[in-house]
Amino acid sequence: MVRSRGVASIAAAVLLVLAGCGGFVANGIDSSANQPTATETATPDAPSPAAANGTLEVHFINVGQSVATLLVSPDNETMLIDSGDFTDDGEYVLQYLDRQDIDRIDHFVVSHNDADHIGGNAAVIRHYETEQNGVGAVYDPGIAASTQTYERYLDAVEAHNVTLYETREGDRIGFSGVETTVLGPPEPYLENGARNENSIVLRIEHGETSFLFTGDAEDDQEAYLVDTYGATLRATVLKAGHHGSASSTSGPLLDAAGPRVVVVSSAYDSQYGHPNNETLQRLAARSVPTYWTATHGDIVLSSNGTAVTVSTQRPAPTDPLALRSGDAIAPGATEPVTQRATYLPRSSPRTATPVETVTDGGTPTENTSGDLIIDRVNADAAGDDWDNLNDEYVVFRNAGAEPLEMGGWTVSDEADHRYTVPDGFTLDPDETVTLHTGSGADTDTELYWGSERPIWNNGGDTVTVTDADNETVLERSY
């Protein structure tokens, strides 16, 4: 009863502010007879493509204690998720968009209406509506805020007659070239309409790769997501919820999403202690490489549909427990990004049905070699590749339930350079081994190719693993 009255009051307030703007859609009812309903716009008739074509770019802009993310689809459509803090009025976001030659925002997604997420909304709308090629539509969870920042945002929507959609779970945004699904907020709202707990949650899929954006979702919305979607939350890249606060990026969400990479957007000297040590401990326990805008600067992820390549302004640590040992980089820094690493999705690359083999004792067992997967390819070593061969490496993981006896297996690239795993080497379940290009002493977790030259092509290559019988176990391109 209280929740219903609260939501109704908020909706009424929003409609009053936007009266006569001709662009607001609430609960599927359009305030303009000439505009389509939210369902018609958000659920395209055409199915997503079976195979990925082109490149999806995801830019995490360094905006200090805030967040703003630019996406450029393979079809060159743009999506902006949030616009930074109210204290800089969109300055850093607009500067970055200008440097990227972005002349139109096709989809402007407002994760929720806190002032540190909508700080540049009014400025972005004004700029693109008056000086560039416009804003296609704004997508908003529909929960108002009693701030001047929110009022200025709605005033800009009304002044420039920009279409504004209330966006909820189950909607789909027609972001051309990729599959975009809205997983939150649900109907009815959680927690009596608390803004953080009703963030717009997006999962964006491009080929085998996927990205999960959870806004400032905290424990209740994350629990809802896990309970509702489970393993379908799987994502190659996860944007840490609520700037890395302790109440977000929970263990259950991490286990369901299984990210290869996590990105945290917050200030180096965050007054809130973001990212929180509890969050970093959870990431470290799962060995998830973590990038932080405060030390890596602008972070650009590129997906070709089979792998995600990460480029950053600075080569800062990615070990979650070492994040703070990196040096701060100021928002607005203009130095270019440099490629750092390439990550592949968590799914097993082997599609053939496992065959049965027979042990010496005659007991049938399943061949589990198909459970070998690639966690990470670091093709571009820091500095000169030739001088830092051990920073060029591939990380393999045993995703199965049984040990993999890998002695005699070979790893090769497209140029047919070959490495043979030492006899007797075994990779236990859920353990990783890193194969470095250079020289060193082999251990249970580190192997060394012993090459005197770089192996992996920075511009893309294929990793092939064959077993002792010369059967292909794994083949993945990046």
Brief digest:
The protein is an alpha/beta fold and 478 residues long.
Bulk shape: elongated
Poorly predicted sequence stretches spanning 5 or more consecutive residues: 1-50, 348-369
Radius of gyration: 24 Å
In round numbers, the mean pLDDT is 84
End-to-end separation = 53 Å
Secondary structure: helix percent: 10-25%
What is the name of the CATH topology of the largest domain? Metallo-beta-lactamase, Chain A
Strand order, sheet with most strands:
2-1-8-7-6-5-4-3-15-16-17-20-21-26-27
Instruction: Give me the CATH superfamily of the largest domain.
Output: Ribonuclease Z/Hydroxyacylglutathione hydrolase-like
Count of beta strands: 29
* Structural class determined from secondary elements: alpha/beta
**What is the CATH top level name of the largest domain?**
Alpha Beta
- Biggest β-sheet description: 15 strands, mixed
Proportion in β-strands:
15-25%
